[in-house]
Amino acid sequence: MKLEKIIADELQYMFLNDTLQGFKETYINNITMRLRNGEIKLFDILSDDFDLKDKILEVLVKINKEKLFYP
Which of 20, 27, 41, 64 is the most buried (most CB within 10 A)? Predict the structure, then answer.
């Protein structure tokens, strides 16, 4: 499974569980859709000034701890 899809899934999960305070549903849906279809890469989000940068870093730590991604 692609890392971008795992991150998109986790961001959607976080939004649905109210752990992404201050983010609108349309913004989360747009970012996660673009991650899933390859329109935007993880590097783009981490290098640009995206609002979700810190949350994505949290997701990466979680993925690493739980070993959810095997390249």
Answer: 20
